[in-house]
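Curious: explain these tokens?
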Amino acid sequence: MTTLLAATLLLDTPEPTLSVDEVMENPDKRSGEKIAIRGQVTDGSIDNSSLTFTLHGEDQELVIDFSTAAVSNGLDDNRTVYAEGELIQKDGKWIFHADIIKTSCPSKYEEAKT
């Protein structure tokens, strides 16, 4: 039973987290795979009517569809985001269909005040 559970977890676990730039360098390579991605929410890109936003890296951007994703509190402009899901091509454009979206906690980057 333990072996079966471990095997299931290994099959469902995405690869190590990739940056937007790493994914978009060769999106065909990642198409249809379950992957984990990180980047920063582009200022003003969150669209609550279509449930999408744009995630950017240093040089690349990617539209994130969060219509069916479990989203942690704090999704906002310029926030660092971790997402798990699948990269798909739709109407000639790459879209990341997210299952899970987690935002970073800004306090973890602040220096402790003494």
